[in-house]
Design a protein that fits this description.
The structure holds 2 protein chains of 2 kinds.
Chain A (H helix, E strand, L loop, with lengths): L2 H33 L18 H10 L7 H8 L9 H9 L6 H8 L6 H5 L8 H5 L2 E7 L3 E7 L7 E6 L2 E6 L5 E7 L5 E6 L5 E6 L8 E8 L4 E7 L9 E2 L7 H5 L5 E5 L8 E8 L8 E10 L8 E9 L5 E9 L9 E4 L6 E3 L3
Chain B lengths: L4 H11 L10 E5 L5 E9 L3 E6 L2 E6 L3 E4 L11 E8 H4 L2 H13 L1 E7 L4 E8 L5 E10 L1 H9 L5 E4 L5 H9 L11 E13 L7 E3 H9 L16 E5 L4 H11 L11 E3 L2 H10 L3 E6 L7 E2 L1 E3 L5 E2 L3 H5 L6 E7 L7 H10 L5 H6 L9 E2 L5 H10 L7 H11 L2 E8 L10 H16 L6 E7 L6 H21 L10 E8 L10 H7 L1 E7 L2
Parallel strand pairs in B: 6-9, 6-10, 12-17, 13-14, 13-15, 22-23
Antiparallel strand pairs in B: 1-2, 1-5, 2-3, 3-4, 7-8, 8-9, 10-19, 11-15, 11-16, 11-19, 17-18, 20-21, 21-24, 22-24
Helix pairs in contact in B: 14-15
The chains are: A alpha+beta, B alpha+beta.
Chain lengths: 358, 522
């Protein structure tokens, strides 16, 4: 993959525009995802936290869901009980000293008379060390249409960029202000191994069986940086912008597919960072097909000021003849800069999906 | 050239020291040091050196010699480069899928470098060393362009959905590139077919080839003439340069002595054609079996009640009249080792699932059990007239069929001659390979001849037996290593008893003149 070239190309420009420009672009990305109601799952309440880390998460459940939480305010009013999502060495240090690893100390010190009742009902595990409290916990549930519902609780990695990896797919996203992250990840293998990496190199992973993976068809495209690439599916004769044209601006969701009404599109990656890693996935639940036909798949590459006259790289994932998803590196020679604003449309890069009703 | 090698080496050995040399840049020395060749390197293909010497151009097996001198290729850095050019039908999905699976199986990591949908390259990297091993360049245009590239020496593999035209054969011969009529220059990769296509909302289920020709000539321009509603027919076909359109003209329009109407809407790709037809309830298209998109395929009828439906089995057996083999043509020169390995892979069992997955019919031998042959048995019974065809003929047929299955390989002859058509020649090779593998040792295999109903039934019976013998002999000749003592090959014939298509039309008679292969079902 030609990421270095992309970094230089995108990086120089971004750097010259300075941070403001970068943030504007990030916001544009964020609002794009919000518009389709898909990507900003980080803002959603973490559903199954209570089972993850009992002593910490039951507090979180009561505290967390605020879409735009103001941690410092919460801290002031509930301190120190609600401190848990905060980084221990900063928030808890004064209280915990001189024996920070001794939870008994913490217990007595927070059992202040005016503390909220929720805290007193908690019985934090004795002898829980800072490292244990910080340990990220990742759980996953298999959902219909070959989906893994991921839930991450990383109390010491709040508002941090993360990298999610699975079967060769890699994308960048961000934890919430509470160090949580949840996403519905279309998987490419079962058992599916999923790993999340934090900026400090810490990793957490989970493996789960996705029993219905064999009953869906799926294609993925991923890239690094701003490539102008996008994945498009045209279901059963649909034309551009028809209801059956499924792409980032007409993404649908897995429920749509499970109802037998067609496939759905998943965009992963929050587009932040200098070379954000982004994944586009289209899923068609083959066993739900109600008519025979074909789904045409195409890849579009917008000719931008960043990409014109250069090579743009990505990676495609399609099932091989044995049903195993195979990655392939693709490099596109983009047209010259007089074509900025135009699109390179590749109709033969991905094999069309054939659908047969049962 | 290769046959000369040993003699040339010996000659070089004797005279080398006494002769003045050219501006030599390589010295090839045999591993034991006994033989030395000096010359100018013309090329290296990953396996063989071609060296211009005082004796002319020599080809030397690279595994037997060491190369020294400034002209020697860096063997570890050798990159197999070759160009694949031709039909979009094959180049869009099928060949790329084959390159990718070949690479994966052979231990190469593959990258696809794209200029656009018609121009792209595959780079194959050795998985262990990471070194670039092959650069495979694709030019996906049309069969005609592929042959033009071959003549211009810009194509090493031509993708073709039809046999070359006489003019293409002449040009290739004149350019000294290849004799395209030589069976060794072509290989069948898989099968496709021309199919009449309509929108799924059309009530039509069948069409005769004569009606199809008349519609595409503009003589029939209303669906009412085909048993549909009173509405105009809107015609769709691939562009004139495509092998699909050319094949349709030569196989359907020319026999009907008709020419294409100007009103036909042309499409640049099979996908566009299928999509346009599927969208329009009044559309009638000629599409590819491999790319029917969301459209509905019509059965082809000969007007006598027998329907010919395109399916994997009827394409393999050529019982469907518009079957189109997918050809690879190669020039008469040595391709790089990796290119030859790739071509070998395409014909191997391992590649067959890839071909099927790309939407084409692969070359697997299929067993068609008696249960699946009810339709043609009904044809046979309907044929009984008490005169030429007696009930006893059909009863003998049924007795023979019982307990055996039909293999999908079927043999047909070019326009009534004794020359096998291209697909049948390929079938000879396939069946011969199976015999050589020993898989059918001890199994009774019967070559069963059939004829059309032109002429007397008795004469047709004799003719069909003759054809069956010809095919048996051809298969045996192609299987020199088969263990004949363990083969149980027989010949039988039934003449015109069991037609697969209507004898009222020439294409139907062509389908009926055939040799089938029946195999004992144990």
């Amino acid at each position: 993959m030609d990421t270095t070239k992309m970094i230089t190309a995108g990086g120089t420009i971004l750097a010259s525009v300075a941070t403001v420009g970068l943030m504007v672009w990030q916001e544009a990305q964020a609002s794009r995802y919000d518009a389709i109601g898909e990507a900003s799952e980080t803002a959603a309440p973490p559903p199954a936290q209570a089972t993850l880390l009992p002593s910490v998460s039951s507090i979180l459940v009561q505290e967390a869901p605020a879409p735009e939480p103001a941690p410092t305010v919460t801290l002031a009013s509930l301190e120190p009980a609600s401190v848990v999502p905060q980084r221990p060495e900063t928030a808890l240090a004064p209280v915990l000293d001189p024996a920070p690893e001794d939870m008994a100390t913490l217990d007595t010190s927070i059992a202040a008379p005016d503390a909220p009742p929720v805290v007193t009902t908690e019985t934090p595990a004795p002898n829980m060390t800072e490292a244990e409290m910080c340990a990220p916990v990742l759980t996953a549930d298999a959902r219909p249409a070959g989906i893994a519902a991921l839930t991450l609780s990383a109390p010491c990695h709040e508002s941090q960029p993360i990298t999610v990896e699975h079967a060769g797919l890699t994308y960048s996203d961000r934890t919430s202000d509470l160090g949580t992250y949840s996403v519905r990840l279309p998987v490419l293998s079962s058992p599916a191994e999923i790993r999340i990496t934090f900026p400090d190199g810490e990793q957490t992973d989970v493996t789960l069986d996705v029993p219905d993976l064999g009953s869906i068809d799926r294609v993925a495209l991923q890239w690094s940086g701003e490539t102008g690439l996008s994945l498009h599916a045209f279901e059963l004769g649909a034309g551009y912008d028809d209801a059956g044209h499924v792409w980032i601006e007409n993404a649908r969701d897995a429920d749509h597919a499970v109802g037998g009404r067609g496939g759905f599109f998943t965009a992963l990656g929050d587009g932040t960072g200098l070379t954000p890693k982004t994944v586009n996935i289209y899923t068609y639940p083959a066993d739900m097909a109600v008519q025979d036909g074909v789904i045409r798949l195409s890849v579009e590459a917008e000719v931008t000021l960043q990409s014109c006259g250069r090579d743009v790289s990505g990676e495609s994932f399609q099932r091989d003849e044995n049903g195993v998803f195979q990655p392939m590196t693709i490099t596109l020679s983009m047209p010259g800069c007089d074509a900025v604003g135009e699109y390179l449309v590749l109709k033969n890069l991905l094999r069309d999906m054939k659908v047969a009703s049962n | 050239m290769i046959g000369l090698r040993a003699a040339a080496l010996a000659a070089v050995c004797l005279f080398f020291s006494t002769l003045a040399v050219l501006a030599n840049d390589v010295t090839l020395t045999s591993r034991d040091g006994g033989v030395t060749i000096e010359g100018t390197l013309l090329g290296y293909d990953g396996e063989f050196y071609r060296v211009e010497t005082v004796y002319g151009a020599l080809t030397v097996d690279g595994s037997g010699v060491n190369c020294e001198g400034p002209g020697c290729p860096d063997l570890t850095a050798y990159v197999a480069e070759f160009n694949i050019s031709g039909a979009r039908t094959m180049g869009a999905v099928l060949l790329p899928a084959l390159v990718e699976s070949f690479a994966a199986r052979s231990g190469y990591r593959v990258e696809r470098k794209i200029t656009d949908d018609s121009h792209f390259r595959y780079e194959l990297y050795d998985q262990r060393s990471g070194a670039l091993s092959a650069d495979i360049r694709f030019r996906v245009t049309s069969t005609a362009e592929g042959f033009a590239d071959l003549v211009a020496q810009e194509a090493d593999i031509v993708l073709s959905v039809r046999e070359p035209l006489a003019s293409e054969v002449d040009r290739a011969r004149a350019a000294g590139v290849a004799d395209l009529t030589d069976a060794r220059r072509r290989r069948i990769v898989g099968l496709d077919a021309l199919v009449p296509l309509v929108s799924p909302s059309s009530p039509l289920e069948r069409i005769t080839l004569e009606q199809l020709a008349s519609a595409f000539a503009g003589e029939i321009d209303n669906w009412a003439a085909l048993g549909g509603p009173d509405a105009p027919i809107r015609l769709h076909l691939r562009d004139a340069a495509s092998g699909l359109a050319q094949g349709f003209v030569s196989r359907v329009m020319v026999p009907a002595d008709l020419t294409l109407a100007a009103s036909i809407q042309r499409h640049a790709s099979n996908e566009d054609l299928a999509d346009a037809v599927a969208r329009d309830p009044l559309a009638l298209g000629v599409a590819n079996y491999s790319e029917i998109g969301n459209g509905k395929v019509l059965a082809v009828s000969g007007g006598c009640g027998i329907l010919n439906v395109a399916s994997a089995a009827t394409l393999r057996s050529e019982d469907y009249p518009l079957t189109t083999p997918l050809f690879l043509y190669t020039p008469a020169k040595r391709l790089p080792l990796l290119a030859r390995e790739f071509i070998g892979y395409i014909r191997s069992p391992a590649a067959q699932p890839v071909i099927a997955r790309a939407g084409f019919v692969n070359l697997f031998l299929e067993r068609i059990p008696l249960d699946a042959q009810g339709e043609r048995l009904a044809n046979a019974i309907a044929r009984v007239d008490g005169d030429g065809i007696r009930l006893s003929d059909v009863q003998r047929l049924v007795r023979t069929m019982r307990g055996s299955a039909r293999l999908s390989v079927t043999f047909r002859f070019q326009g009534g001659s004794s020359t096998l058509d291209a697909q049948s020649e390929s079938n000879v090779e396939l069946l011969a390979q199976m015999l050589e593998s020993g898989r059918y040792n001890g199994t009774r295999i019967t070559f069963v001849g059939f004829s059309d109903s032109d002429g007397a039934a008795r004469a047709n019976l004799g003719l069909s037996r003759k054809r069956a013998e010809v095919v048996r002999d051809a298969v045996l000749a192609a299987a020199p290593t088969a263990d004949r003592a363990r083969l149980d090959l027989r010949v039988d014939a039934f003449g015109e008893v069991m037609p697969m298509a209507c004898d009222t039309v020439e294409w139907g008679r062509q389908v009926n003149r055939r040799v089938e292969v029946w195999i004992d079902q144990r």
